[in-house]
Description:
Blueprint (H helix, E strand, L loop, with lengths): L5 H18 L2 E3 L9 E5 L6 H8 L4 E6 L6 H8 L2 E4 L6 H12 L3 E3 L18 H9 L2 E8 L1 H4 L14 E4 L3 E2 L6
Parallel strand pairs: 1-7, 2-5, 2-6, 3-4, 3-5
Antiparallel strand pairs: 6-7, 6-8
Helix pairs in contact: 1-2, 4-5
Amino acid sequence: MKKPSFLYSLVIFLVRTFFKVFYRHKVYGLDHYPKGSGLVAPNHVSFFDPPCVAVSCPGEIHFLARETLFKSFFGKLISALNAHPVKKNATNLQVMKDVCQLLKEGCKVLMFPEGTRSKDNNLLEIKPGIGLLLSKSESLIIPTYIHGTFDLWNRKRKFPKLWGKTAVVFGSPIRWDDFKD
């Protein structure tokens, strides 16, 4: 696996510092975080969720993001930070192929199993895409829980609160080999 780009490393350093200073960010369960490829699968309640998970992971990760985010300068930035566009209400076969390829290359991919942010901090129905990716890639899923981001920057807030507490908890990996039969 290649070394992360300078831009990726710089952004992760800056965002990690921001989360530590303003949100006293903590990470738990790093002993569950495996080497090699895997789907990082957290709950999704806030605009802060992708960067919060990214700064919690010990290595570089790739992201799936809705296609509309790629239509501006912000899209160029997140592309440079390993984001891959996903079309809403489409089968996204190419995205599935791209994710499978990333997993075969030994990468970690952040994928929100719910597909969208929760409006009330409760877990939504899990979409079938993550199971399909698990079966096609024969990789593993790293269940992840994000705590505190809903109170800081949920769908109803235009801007985030500047003080609070956040945490990310990595659970025991779900391995394809344990369920393939």
